[in-house]
Design brief:
There is one protein chain. This protein folds into two domains: 262 residues, Aminopeptidase, CATH 3.40.630; 115 residues, Alpha-Beta Plaits (2-Layer Sandwich). 31% of the residues lie in helices and 26% in strands. It has ten helices and 14 strands. The strands form three sheets. An eight-stranded mixed β-sheet has the order 1-2-4-3-5-14-6-13. The chain has a four-stranded antiparallel β-sheet with strand order 9-11-7-12, covered by helices on one side. Helix 1 packs antiparallel against helix 3 and helix 2 runs parallel beside helix 3.
Length: 383
């Protein structure tokens, strides 16, 4: 962060802490939007504001001459987690808290307003994008199918994510892609109820469920260096009721499945369908699939990655090159399908609690790191 910008840092920290104290769940970020919009209208005199859907919006800087259009994206939503921290700005909303650091991401992107207001940039356009519903995978999907968003004519789209467990201020670059492709699925199985004393008169799905779980486990490939890397995690199991006189008819298995790319995800889902079909057919059971939250793999474009590396070098930040993507899902992958995109990691401390832990808190120390990275990327592209 340039020296003359440090006087704005207290305002950026204050915004971050206000956002942390007032978290909202995916698709419900109305007060969050109002808070950031008021901040943008107060400090972003040269900007215009565009809205998308109910809670998406952008702060746009259109410079005098035609040039490249750069979007910097952050996320608005929090998680359904009760905060354990006891500091003065802890969440005031019971059961909801910013445990992924989106409050810090929003503060970084909002902090760019001060830098952009002071720049003598003559060409191009910068879009500060505040996206709802990242945690459900619906926010970016909504935007990439919005004609108004498409009309912005974005050439490059960048984002960051804070990474606990990495040294503070380090920049993590993942040339092969930032995050995994993630799909959630419910496998519904239907047999026939019977008296628990006479299970042979019905069709209890328990044995089929056990075979499916075993078969799904065999599809795991946990070596991240392998092209067929796959993680199949059972997250919920439901069968019958707490009625001890009934042999149940119905069961549900809930899984999340992860691969490094779309082609491997397609292959994996095909294997799952074949597995379930074979087991249910041999056990005379009906079945169906319900495919839920989907996060496409976030692909890092070569040119965008080079801009990230150049910005990190220019600011003297240590670069950590990671051979494979992160395992978590990120709906930034929806943008990768249409635009030149790249995400990078920002180290938030070796001893920081992990993402989604109840005692996690985004460190204010890395707000300036994120602002420096994005401002340098913008400057290099639009200079």
């Amino acid at each position: 962060m340039p020296q003359d910008q440090h006087r704005y840092l207290p305002k950026i920290i204050q915004l971050r802490r206000e956002l942390h104290a007032n978290p909202e769940l995916s698709g419900q970020e109305y007060k969050t939007v109002n808070r950031i919009r008021q901040f943008a209208e107060k400090h972003g005199k040269a900007a215009q504001i565009e809205t998308f859907g109910e809670t998406g919006f952008a702060v746009i800087y259109q410079f005098p001459e035609p040039g490249k259009t750069i979007a910097i994206r952050c996320e608005l939503d929090a998680l359904p987690i009760q905060e354990e921290n006891q500091f003065s700005y802890k969440s005031v909303n019971a059961g909801v808290s910013h445990k992924c650091g989106h409050d810090g991401h929003m503060a970084i992107v909002s902090g760019l307003i001060f830098w952009l207001e002071a720049q003598p940039i003559q060409k191009g356009k910068v879009i500060l994008l505040f996206q709802p519903a990242e945690e459900t995978g619906k926010g970016a999907q909504m935007l990439v199918h919005d004609n108004k968003f498409e009309a912005l004519g974005i050439d490059y789209l960048f984002a960051l994510h804070n990474i606990p467990g990495e040294s503070i201020h380090n920049i993590i670059i993942t040339p092969k892609g930032f995050s995994a492709e993630v799909q959630s699925v419910v496998i519904k199985i239907k047999g026939k109820e019977a008296h628990a004393a006479e299970p042979e008169n019905g069709n209890n799905p328990a044995l089929a469920v056990s075979k499916i779980i075993e078969g799904m486990s065999s599809l795991n490939c946990l070596d991240p260096k392998m092209d067929n890397f796959a993680v199949l995690t059972p997250v919920h199991l439901l069968m019958g009721e707490k009625a001890y006189g009934i042999s149940p008819a119905n069961a549900e298995l809930h899984y999340t499945i992860r691969t490094w790319n779309s082609s491997q995800m397609s292959l994996l889902t095909s294997k799952i369908k074949t597995l379930v079909d074979g087991i249910c057919l041999s056990n005379h059971l009906d079945f169906s699939f319900e495919w839920l939250e989907f996060f496409p793999a976030s692909i890092n474009d070569e040119e965008c990655t080079a801009h990230i590396q150049k910005a990190a070098n220019a600011n003297g930040f240590e670069i950590i090159n990671k051979e494979h993507p992160f395992r978590f899902g990120e709906d930034f992958g929806w943008y990768s399908k249409k635009y030149k995109t790249a995400m990078f990691g920002l180290g938030s401390g070796i001893d920081s609690p992990a993402l989604h832990h109840a005692d996690y808190d985004f460190p204010d120390e890395i707000l300036t790191t994120g602002i420096q990275m994005f401002s340098t990327i913008i400057q290099n592209i639009l200079k």
